Structures are given as C-alpha cells and as structure tokens.
Amino acid sequence: MKKLFILFAAALLVASCAKEPKFVINGTIDGAQDGIILLQKRIPGGYSVIDSANLVNGAFTFEGVIEYPQMVNIAIKDMRGGLNFFIENAEITINAKADSLYLASVSGSETHTEYETYRASFDEMNDEMRKAYDRYREAKMAGNEELATAIEKEFEGMDARQTEMKKEFIANNPSSYITPSVLGEIAYYLEASEMEEFLGKLDTTLNKVQSVIAMKEKLVLLKAVAVGQKAPDFTLNDVEGNPVSLYSKIGGNTKLLLVDFWAAWCGPCRQENPNVVKVWNEYNKKGFDVFGVSLDQTAEAWTKAIADDKLTWTHVSDLKYWDCAPAKLYAVSAIPANFLLDENGIIVGHNLRGEALGAKVKELLGAE
Fold first, then answer.
1. 152 pLDDT band (50/70/90 cuts)?
2. What is the SS3 string spanning 103-126?
3. What is the CATH number of domain 17-109?
C-alpha cells in the first residue's frame, strides 16, 4: 500500500510538472523566408528585447513563461513596423505578412481577443474622425479657416468622447489585464486626483503589473505638481549657456507663466507652437509669459526649431532627451506638456492646449 501511495504521488508530481504554465508562440510570416524575429517590450524611448528566434522558411517559434498577460511586440530585425499583441501562458498562433505585420491575425490568447474587442468598439468613431480630418485638410487647403476651425472643434469633441469611453471601460473592467494599457492611453489627460481614483479601484490582482506599479510611482510626483501646488524650482542653461532658474521668471511684470515642455523632434509640439505664439502675442503685454523647456538632444535642432517657429520667449534645456531633469521632476512622460503658474508660483493650469490655453489665460488675467 505504501509503495502504491509513493507511485501515485510521483505520478501527480510528473503531471503537475508537465502542466507548468508557459507560452508557445507559433508564427508564419508571408514574404519573409529567413531572418531574425524579435520578441520585445515597449520601454520609454524604444523597445527592450525579451527573446529572439530564427525565421526558417517563413516560420518561427517562441517558448517561455510570462508572469501575467501583457502587451508585447514582435518585429523582424532591421525592418520597420511590428505587431503589438497581448501574450499570456497559452498556445498562441500568429499569421502575418512581412509588409504589414501590424495587421497579423492572433489566436490563442484570450487577453488579446478581449483587446481586439475593445479596439473594435472604436472603429465607427475612428472612421468618423478620419473623415473629419480629411474635411479639415480640404478646408485648410482651400483657405477656409472658419470651416477648418469648426471641423477642429468637431474633431476635439469626438476625441473627448473616446476618452470618456476609455474611462468607462476602466471603471467596468477593474480586473482585466488590458485595463492598465487603457489607463495608460489616457494618463496624459488625467489630473492627479482622477489618476488616484482610477488606480484605487483596480483589482489587487493587477498590483503586480509593471505599468500599474509605474503609474503609482508617477502618482506621487503628479500630486507634487497638481493644480494648487507650488511649482518646484529648477535651473537649466539657456541657448547661450547661461543658467536660468524657473523662479527668476516668476513675479514682477509676469502674472502668469507657462512652463512649456517640448522638443524640435516632437510633431504635436510643433503643431501646438503656433497656438502658444498666438497667446503670447495677445497677452504678453498684459502679464503672460512662457518658459520653454526642451527635451532635445542637440543644440542645433533645438535652436533651429526656436527660430523656425518664432518662439521669442526664454528657452532652457540640458539636451538630455527623456533624461531631462525638470521633465522627471514634473512627471512629464509625454510632450507637449505644460504647467501654468501664477505670480506666486502656484500651479493654476495643466496641459492647456488649443483654445483652452487662450481661454484660461484670458480668464485669469481678466483681459477683455
């Protein structure tokens, strides 16, 4: 009897080992017979390679263990483009074409299927937004600024509705492994109090998710630079190499100061610059000023963009890209980003773009 018990226990051990959770990814890529496939994860400024596999006759395989379902990317080494998908410990099949990896079919990952359903819920509105953007371009090319402005407001309304849809998804799916990714999509638009509320309602099973850990760490910084808080001081060199402190620009004739984080390489920043110039031109003599903080890497690109965009206010930078010390101090993880300060250095506005910036400045200055 004892011998039978030992054999039974051994059989159970073998069975449990055989069923150890792991992922197996089998993929085919039409149009690529050989090469190296990279399995990687997004990190600030690029990707970190998790594993690599040889592409043999258009096929590849990855095996391993993942702690929890999460977004990863596969790409062909030395080729542009890739596929983002949710990996989990399961048998996953990917069928793709070399010239359009992002359109690959993914099966076997329940989390990715959930993610595809989530994305599909935006298809209709995304189509409307594409059509609106085409109409906007046509209006701009025709010189019809009134129509272009109206379409821009329509576009902003649709964008706001999408943000609300994402907030609803987060609230309704507190234990889903795609929820942290959705929260990351709208984090830029959230003030510290709202971010804290969303994070506080997530299921505890998500506490191990790296992006959740990172957002909780960022929340500490966000609270320090939330509206109503006194802005932290910092000093960087201007374009001539002279150190300039933030607080040297506060007070005196300056009643409102916009601390503007941007970079020459940032398309959305360059698109927003004309609006900042417009507000500066309209309200500078009434007490509004701008303090530009660049996340550039070279002085040449930085100074050229300043001249090209006619940014006539004070500019500073340490030319350290995302390692920019003030950007870290102000929890800036996406640009353009800005903080509006009053004459005492109190933050009175955050990430004001488009018409919102002019409206807030007008409101606070009591300008006609």
1. confident
2. HCEEECCHHHHHHHHHHHCCHHHH
3. 2.60.40.10
Where is pLDDT greater, at 155 or 45?
Answer: 155
Residue pair 151/158 in contact (Cβ under 8 Å)? The answer is no
Query: Which residue type occupies 61?
Result: T
What pLDDT was estimated at residue 68? 95
Find, among 63, 61, 52, 65, the residue nearest to 29 by Cα.
61
pTM of the model: 0.76
Q: What ranges do the domains of the chain cover?
A: 17-109, 120-224, 235-365
| Whole-number Å distance between alpha carbons of 311 and 303 | 10
pLDDT higher than 90, residue 4: no
Q: How far apart are CA 357 and CA 227, in angstroms?
A: 15
* CA atoms of 231 and 42, how far apart (whole Å): 31
d(CA 112, CA 135): 34
| Whole-angstrom distance, CA of residue 361 vs CA of residue 368 | 11
Which tokens in the block code for residue 132? 């609106």
pLDDT at 101 over 80: yes
Q: Which of 76, 117, 116, 115 lies closest to 97, judged by CA? A: 76
- For residues 104 and 38, give the distance between their C-alpha atoms in angstroms, rounded to a whole number: 15
Residue 252 token pair: 């005196």
CATH domain 235-365 topology: Glutaredoxin (3.40.30)
Q: Do 97 and 74 form a contact (C-beta atoms < 8 A)?
A: no
Residue 281 structure tokens? 């031109």
